[in-house]
From TrEMBL:
InterPro entries: RNaseH_sf. One of its GO terms (molecular function) is nucleic acid binding. Gene3D superfamilies: Ribonuclease H-like superfamily/Ribonuclease H. This is Tc1-like transposase DDE domain-containing protein.
Amino acid sequence: MGSRRIATCVGITHPTVLRIIREEGLRPYKVQVVQELQPGDLRARKQFCQWMLGKLRRNPDFLENVLFTDKSSFSSTSILNRQNVRIWAERNPHAMVQRVHQGRFAINVWAGIVGNNYVGPVYLPNRLNSARYLAFLQRDLLIPRHQRNNIYFMHDGAPPHFGREVRAYLDRFFGTRWIGRRPAPHLWPPRSPDLNPLDFFFLGSA
């Protein structure tokens, strides 16, 4: 809440609010947006982290073999927060961003990170279903043959990832080395963008 709004709500003058804030040594901080968790999420997150730590104890380089993946949707109508945008220049460029688009578009972008390398990006259909996701896995998910016996494939619990044909393909291709929604061999905890480098490093938690 801004200082002027505080003054209006409390019924005192704005200079008085500013004086009190200075005297109390208060500073303004931005709100941090975090993922909402549900009651069973903490247990699932703890179990996944314990499994991962066990793998790391046996093999300190285990994370080098995990292919973390995620997809994000981008559109011409995305919300722009001008407080997070800065343009550095010697003179004011009077930069503008168009907000109303007559020709709207949206696109799904998939990407992966394994070790220090990224895989993709790959553009997926806007209306993604299990059949289209399976076609993507078969056609566009290119993993060198010499790495196939070591790679752990991770994806979240999105509905297209859960189709019977998708799970059967992952079982054939990766065996027990894939992470996802139940009944995956290893369960990915839902609502855990902080555990996926795609969310906090590459795509952002969209």
